[in-house]
Write a structure and sequence with these properties.
Blueprint: H1 2-8, E1 15-20, H2 30-37, H3 40-43, E2 46-51, H4 58-65, E3 70-73, H5 77-82, E4 87-92, E5 99-104, E6 119-121, H6 132-141, E7 150-152, H7 159-162, E8 168-172, H8 176-183, E9 187-190, E10 203-207, H9 208-213, H10 215-234, H11 236-246, H12 253-267, H13 279-291, H14 314-327, H15 329-364, E11 368-373, E12 379-382, H16 384-390, H17 394-398, H18 408-422, E13 428-436, E14 442-452, E15 461-468, H19 470-484, H20 494-511, E16 515-523, H21 525-532, H22 534-550, E17 557-562, E18 565-570, H23 576-591, E19 594-596, E20 599-601, E21 604-612, H24 619-635, E22 640-643, H25 646-665, E23 671-680, E24 686-697, E25 701-703, H26 705-715, H27 717-739, E26 745-749, H28 752-756, H29 761-771, E27 779-784, H30 785-789, H31 793-805, E28 808-814, H32 823-826, E29 831-834, H33 836-839, H34 847-861, E30 865-869, H35 874-882, E31 887-889, E32 897-898, H36 899-922
Parallel strand pairs: 1-2, 1-3, 6-7, 6-8, 21-22, 24-26, 26-27, 27-28, 28-29, 29-30, 30-31
Antiparallel strand pairs: 3-10, 4-10, 5-8, 5-9, 11-12, 11-15, 13-14, 14-15, 16-18, 16-21, 17-18, 19-20, 23-24, 23-31, 23-32, 24-25
Length: 931
């Protein structure tokens, strides 16, 4: 058992240490997360706990108070050291500080002096470890002392600058700019580096107590942390996901990757070993503090910088060695030269390994990186990923300049930014641009450019880092195209039309002038769809769009709102004659035949016109008025244009009010059912009737069905009204079948909207008939030809459903349709109703008589019976009867009448028939003939 316990125990216990961060979890501390996740700390024998910070004083308090072994601090650690606090910097992570000043952008050129007299948040007023000193030194050097503006406590909330609570705010260039860009907030950024004030950013530090007690642990922790930073900077997306999964979701993935990209020029992982620090840079920082009166001039900071070679502070050790060498000159010189040789060898080996390591990172970096001569534009060094994105070889790139491979439209804007970079006015910039590959293809890249220190090269250089975002740009372009343009005609859609009309209105408000809006609706387009199919209908719409576009200027806008509705924006309209001319041109263009495969189609257009600012001053009313004018053009006979007038508005208002009144008409008992007899022409008997709805309005009196039925259809009330008509009709037909004729039928008109609905309404109808013990043959459903022309499965299924229930079907207004008669043999039709337009002009040997004869003969050949509508004279009745027409309907027989009156008519007919029968019976019988 003891042996098993020994085997289960770890080989060696890990040292538990704590790292205190200065802020909440974000990519700013990515290297430490990477070291923990990749096991670098565990390999170094360390069990590391990482604590999130609430303010930048947390690391100093925790490390010096013993709550943490290590911390992350800024350059103000130097102030703490010289104030007597035993802090030791182990390594520099950010070679350049991300601290900068953001000022709300104005219409003028960027000018730092705009902060004078304004409210500004620059660091914490109470936090000793803030970076405020860096910006205050920058402002002082630019001639802007702290007394010249009002400094307020920092909220660290970017919304305060966006909302205008302050005019300037200290920011991290790795953080707030992304927030401002997402909000669309215009701002200018000013960095102390433009004035030569170059502080270190984040630094890893510890205490003298930790260094003295655990020198090997310090060395191991530092080495593992720097390994973690090397990994994090080469695996940005992986670490961003790690932060989201294990540390914080305060920021989204896009922001974390923005941080990562912005940190590259600050950390400079390719050019500088992470952790490296230069004593001269710390001396520069000390001199800046001295200039602010925060440190004495030439202050000594011995022991502040950690020596990774042996874990001790190097200068103190070196002075002791040199002191001993001074006592023993000869021996000391020998030892001294020996140490120098060994140090040089060690330094050369370190440099060689560092160069190899960073060259490897440079070569394997997931983003394109190039070092470019800022004056000549020549490429000095390029990694493989940059070559891959640019689509060129190393030799081709070396022979090129950056503007040779850039899209011509992107060169001038970037040259302006390069001029500012070379003049030292900015430290870097970022942009999206296009690269041209040798094969002519275009690659979109997000580029970050930052100036680098290359004094030994003679010319200033800059580092260019690029990411291929072509797929993203193409997706954005596709989404934008789909959101703003009609996929069929490629015209602007409703959304883009509204946007362009809004811009045109703003221009008119600024410059004066007028706008004409044309609302175009194609006449008879539905018949093309119904007869030739939707594919040919689409072909017609595409050609119609092209014809309309050819009638206007390129500066005008033609849009498709949907279906067969188009709109045109005519800008700069000074007189109505030009609008008339364009509208007539559109009408003439659309009236020409459309070639659709082997067929030809003819359509016309109805155009409504409204003017800005004459008729309306906003988009909704302009469109509403144009729509009203278009309906006026349709009502005037189609193939014409009509201008909006206030009268149309009144008519539209009346339609709206009438529709509202219609909603309460059924419940209010305002609707009534009228019946018109259908007479058997051979016998003169009434065995059928057509049910017709009438509306008696409380104020308007009798409202014509031609007026309220279209309103019922457009509002959806036709469904409820149709059901009511059926219920009332079957009650009367039951009575009349019982009292007058056992095969009496009532015809019920059905709107196409009713017929095409898919709500199981016919099941309810059959339920009504069954409840009254009525057969299906007691009802005839009247439909129009248009329904049969759109011979889809829903229509076919409805007809089959009617046939199975025994309900008969009559085809109303026959002879006025658009298409062939092939549907007559395809569907089960029982009756054809000859339209009154044929009956009205019936005369012997007339063309209408010939057509009526043909319809009757054809119907009988197909087993159909014929009803003639609009019979008003005895001559018409006799001609139809002679031609073999089965039934007649019209004012000759009776006008539509209330149900009670129709019931009285049937009773009178029955009485007359009885009297005639009695007269026949009472007549004397003729004597038989004699032989």
């Amino acid at each position: 058992m003891a042996l098993l316990a020994l085997m289960a125990a770890p080989a060696s216990a890990l040292d538990a240490v704590t790292l205190q961060l200065k802020h909440h979890h974000q990519f700013q501390f990515a290297g430490y997360y990477a070291a923990l996740e990749q096991g670098y700390y565990r390999e170094a024998g360390l069990d590391v706990r990482i604590l999130e910070g609430s303010d930048s004083n947390d690391p100093e308090r925790a490390v010096l108070g013993g709550q943490a072994n290590y911390g992350v601090g800024g350059s103000s650690l130097l102030l703490a050291r010289l104030a007597g606090k035993p802090v030791v910097v182990l390594g520099v992570v950010f070679q350049h500080s991300p601290y900068a000043l953001a000022i709300r952008q104005s219409g003028s050129e960027p000018d730092l002096r705009r902060i004078i007299g304004k409210r500004a948040m620059i660091g914490s007023l109470t936090d000793e470890m803030s970076n405020a000193d860096e910006l205050l030194a920058y402002l002082k050097q630019e001639g802007i002392p702290a007394s010249s503006f009002q400094r307020v406590e920092h909220s660290f909330n970017p919304d305060d600058l966006v909302a205008g609570k302050v005019d300037a705010m200290s920011i991290y260039t790795t953080n707030e700019p992304d927030i401002f860009d997402r909000l669309g907030f215009p701002y200018d950024v000013y960095t102390p580096r433009t004035a030569g004030i170059d502080f270190y950013g984040d630094n890893l530090f510890t205490s003298e107590a930790e260094l003295a007690a655990h020198p090997q642990r310090v060395k191991a922790f530092r080495a593992a942390s720097m390994r973690g930073w090397q990994y994090a900077m080469s695996h940005q997306e992986e670490i961003a996901d790690l932060i989201l999964n294990k540390y914080s979701r305060r920021n989204d993935r896009q922001h974390l990757l923005y941080e990562a990209r912005q940190m590259v020029p600050l950390v400079q992982p390719v050019l500088v070993e992470i952790g490296y620090m230069n004593p001269e840079r710390w001396r520069h920082i000390a001199d800046v503090y001295a200039g602010l009166g925060m440190l004495p001039a030439h202050a000594s900071f011995d022991g502040f910088m950690y020596d990774p070679g042996n874990g001790r502070t190097p200068l103190r050790w070196l002075y002791r060695v040199l002191g001993a060498a001074a006592l023993l000159l000869v021996l000391g010189l020998a030892v001294h030269f020996s140490l120098l040789a060994r140090e040089r060898q060690r330094a050369e080996e370190t440099i060689r390994k560092g160069e190899l390591r960073f060259r490897t990172m440079f070569e394997r970096a997931p983003m394109g990186i190039a070092l470019i001569d800022s004056l000549t534009g020549r490429f000095s060094d390029i990694n493989p990923r940059y070559l891959e994105i640019a689509g060129r070889t190393q030799q081709e790139m070396v022979a090129s300049r950056w503007f040779d491979i850039s899209h011509p439209d992107d060169v001038v804007p970037e040259q302006l930014q390069m001029e500012q970079l070379n003049a030292g006015r900015i430290a870097g910039y970022k942009l999206s641009k296009r690269l041209l590959r040798p094969d002519g293809t275009v690659v979109w890249v997000d580029a970050s450019i930052v100036a680098v220190d290359t004094a030994d090269r003679g010319h200033p250089h800059h580092l260019c880092m690029i990411e291929d975002v072509t797929d993203k740009k193409e997706t954005e372009a596709l989404v934008w195209q789909q959101a703003n343009f009609d996929p069929l005609t490629q015209l602007p859609n409703r959304r883009m039309f509204h946007d362009r009309l809004a811009h045109a209105i703003l221009k008119c408000q600024r410059d004066g002038g007028r706008i004409a809006v044309l609302f175009i609706d194609l006449d008879h387009f539905k018949e093309v769809n119904d007869t030739l199919g939707h594919h040919q209908g689409d072909v017609l719409l595409v050609e119609a769009a092209q014809r309309i576009g050819a009638c206007v200027r390129k500066s005008d806008t033609v849009a498709r709102l949907g279906g067969d509705e188009f709109t045109v924006i005519l800008s700069g309209v000074d007189e109505g004659g030009r609008v008339d001319s364009i509208a007539q041109h559109v009408l003439d263009s659309l009236r020409a035949p459309f070639a659709l495969g082997e067929e030809q189609a003819f359509v016309s257009a109805s155009i409504g016109i409204t003017l800005y600012p004459d008729d309306a001053r906003d988009i909704d009313n302009l469109l509403k008025h144009a729509d009203q004018a278009m309906y006026a053009a349709k009502g005037g006979g189609r193939n014409r244009f009509s201008y909006f007038t206030p009268t149309l508005q009144v008519a539209a208002l009346n339609r709206m009010r009438l529709t509202n009144d219609l909603r309460g008409a059924l419940k209010g008992g305002q609707l009534a059912l009228y019946f018109q007899p259908i007479v058997h022409l051979r016998t003169g008997r009434i065995h059928k009737a057509e049910a017709l709805i009438r509306w008696t309005h409380p104020q308007r009196g009798m409202v014509s069905p031609l007026e309220f039925i279209p309103l019922a259809e457009s509002s959806g009330l036709i469904m409820e009204i149709g059901s009511w008509v059926l219920r009332e009709s079957v009650q009367w037909v039951r009575r009349w079948r019982r009292e007058h004729h056992p095969e009496f039928q009532v015809s019920v008109n059905q709107s196409p909207l009713e017929f095409q609905r898919d709500d199981g309404s016919y099941q309810a109808w059959l339920g009504e008939l069954q409840a009254l013990d009525l057969p299906g043959q007691s009802v005839v459903v009247e439909i129009t030809e248009g329904l049969l022309l759109d011979a889809n499965s829903a229509v076919s299924n409805k007809l089959l459903q009617l046939r199975d229930a025994g309900i008969q079907v009559a085809l109303d207004d026959f002879g006025t349709g658009y298409s062939s008669l092939s549907y007559l043999k395809k569907f089960d039709i029982d009756y054809l109703k000859i339209d009154r337009s044929f009956t009205r002009n019936l005369a012997p040997d007339s063309s209408d008589m010939a057509l009526s004869d043909a319809i009757i003969v054809m119907a009988h050949k197909l087993g159909l019976r014929v009803i003639a509508e609009g019979v008003e004279t005895a001559e018409q009745r006799d001609l139809l009867a002679a031609a073999g027409c089965d039934y007649g309907q019209g004012y000759l027989f009776a006008r539509p009448m209330p149900a009670e009156q129709f019931d009285a008519l049937l009773k009178a007919q029955a009485a007359q028939a009885a009297q005639a029968a009695q007269a026949v019976q009472a007549a004397p019988t003729a004597p038989a003939p004699t032989t």
